[in-house]
Amino acid sequence: MKIALWVIVGIVISLGLVIGIGILMFRREIKKLNHEYIVQFVKAKSGSRNVSLSIKHNDETWVDVNGHEQLPLASTVKIILAIEYAQQAAEGKIDPQKEVKLKELDKFYIPKTDGDAHEAWITQLKKDKETDSVPLCEVAYGMIAYSSNANTEYLMEVLGLQNINHVPKSLGMLNHEPIYPIVSALYIPAQLMNEKNLSKKEVLKVIKNMDMSEYRNRAIDIHNRWLSQPLTDQEKNQLRKTLVMDFQKIWSDRLPRSTTEDYVSIMKKLNSKIHFNENVYKYLNPVMEQIMENQNNREWLIHAGQKGGSTPFILTIAMYATDKQRNQTEIAFFANDLTVLEQAKLSRNMNGFQLKFLKDAKFRTHIKKNCLI
Fold first, then answer.
1. Pairing between strand 51-57 and 99-101?
2. Residue 1 covered by a domain
3. Final residue of a domain: which of 236, 255, 274?
4. Which tens digit of pLDDT belongs to each residue from 85-129?
5. Which range, of 93-107, 193-207, 254-268, averages the lowest pLDDT?
6. Domain Beta-lactamase class A catalytic: where (predicted)?
7. Do 270 and 288 contact (CB within 8 A), yes or no?
8. Neighbours of 248 (CB within 10 A)
9. Prediction pTM value
10. Among 277, 273, 289, residue whose Cα is nearest residue 88
11. What is the extent of the structural domain holding 326?
12. Are 330 and 16 in contact (CB under 8 A)?
């Protein structure tokens, strides 16, 4: 018995060492800064149809890898809401200065489901003074700058889903799936459990087989119910416990999809400053171009804007920039079915890749040669 016990102790210690070394190596790997990783990743994964990269530089198609491939957008889809917000503000349909009670946003806030984005925005709001309301323009800003999902879902109600879903068509986007309330969709598994008294395994099967139109309609119905009957704090906590990784993966896979080709075309319209009425840019620029709040960026850029998105399985970003030499660049990158390491390394190196492309002509040439066009 003593020998067996020591064997077990030895195995446990060995496993602990292996796990510890693995975690250490993982941390070291994701800390490395390597803008070349994005190029390597695109080349390696281009045949999988789970990665797409489209780049335009000074009106020239610089890179087009799987540009027609529909992939989940994650929070990058919020660009469409920002455009509709600016258009309605410019037309006087909404008042950007109208006060919004924070408790109205709380109806759509599920803690720990957005990377603490909403909490970070609230903390920043209350940095100078305690407040229980903010102007609508600040809600839109929080949706883009902090990626608050609660703000996004609230704006869906204010702007109208039908109006929001008209934006891609009006911009000539051919491959954009309908936008629907993505926070409310998190509740679909719990709703099915309650309705049909199903186990998690059974619910997983039902959702996998569910038609997308039914899935979207369920999310819209939940959204409408939360307007008058939001979840209690206890119900929100219970919902979080329901969202096992399998449910998160289905939710992630069913997010609205589009193509990098379509999103580069949007970035071009935002970058040009001539596609929309001047009044639209007046409301859109403060929301989309938080990059320009940084003095260092103002020293070499005329204007720039971006929005990224992520889930444990997705990383997406769409950006545009015009530098002081009048060079114009638009980039859209979408990736799906990522491993934890891939997601972490892409997130870590994307900003460096963008900056290198914008600032380094040799790197731009290198990209053109090494990515399929």
1. unpaired
2. no
3. 255
4. 999 999 999 999 999 999 999 999 999 898 899 999 999 988 877
5. 193-207
6. 59-173
7. yes
8. 16
9. 0.90
10. 277
11. 32-73+258-370
12. no
